[in-house]
UniProtKB/TrEMBL annotation:
Keyword line: Metal-binding, Oxidoreductase, Zinc
GO CC annotations, alphabetized: cytoplasm
Protein name per UniProt: Alcohol dehydrogenase catalytic domain-containing protein
UniProt family annotation: Belongs to the zinc-containing alcohol dehydrogenase family.
Co-factor requirement: Zn(2+)
InterPro entries linked to this entry: ADH-like_C, ADH-like_N, ADH_Zn_CS, ER, GroES-like_sf, NAD(P)-bd_dom_sf
GO molecular function, one term: zinc ion binding
Amino acid sequence: MKVPFVHGPGDLRLDEIDAPVAGPDDVVVRIARAGICGSDIGYVAMGGVAGPSDRPVPLGHELAGTIAQVGEAVEGFAVGQRVIVNPTTNLIGNGGPEGGFAEHLLVRGVADQAGALLPIPDHVAFEDAALVEPLAVGAHAANRSGAGKGDRVAVFGAGPIGLATIINLKRNGVDHIVSIDLSAFRRERALVLGADAVIDPRAEDVADALKRLHGTAQSWFGEMAATSRYIEASGAPVIGDILAMAAPGAGLCVVSVQKKPVQIDFQQLLARELTITTACAYGDEFAQMLDLVGSGAVDVGPMVSHRFQGGDFLAAFAIASDPERAAKVLVEYS
């Protein structure tokens, strides 16, 4: 079977590998849907998870499928059962030896790792189940930001993680959410998924727009936007700009991968008592998002913009790499 591997910066290839066989503690999942993540795009750009690697790096960690093989020591799972894969257990598609953009995926050590696989409710489609992983990242970012009732939040970036964060901020009772993105396509999706307003940073100054949308706060530093929480989900070099516009007492949560080191003026943080938090992956949110999708309380369908067959993976990746045209791109395996 052909599986995408990163061989160096900008070097993505489809390599032929053997289909996996489950050991006593393992499970093999026949993949039905796999989502392309912004981190996949970043890994290709950098040549690996944290820069060029000494070996090819497989991709794919947003996964739903059906169990094809079960090791003799594994309990609680059966062939034919539909599951989602928690990729954090084996760093699947994140530097580990396996990646999920494949017809079959080996999930190692399921016998000893509770939560490596979660059963998909019968009424939940594979497409929705494959969105659980990015939804969990967004839920973790929303939770780590501390935003809730009474807060006015600005989310930078309306890619899949930004959209997932908006969904969860709305669930957490945030009063007003503004989405900031260069792409009109993505701004429209943000409004559908819960944003109250959007800003095109090419059309107006973001700080001035936030003053208009969130009101102003008077401080020693003059009139500033009364935005109480900022979330950086774009990966663009905007952290310095956010800190410069943030009013005293505001908080910033960074959930994006920053491709270059970021300089921070700690005098600004000190004088205005700003708080910086980061959010990486998820904990209990993974199972919680499966419950959310199963409940039908939120229509997550608008997160998906494109669908491709597995044989067209390179075309799918090219579309996913274009923020002007894509949100979540799903790859389907028969």
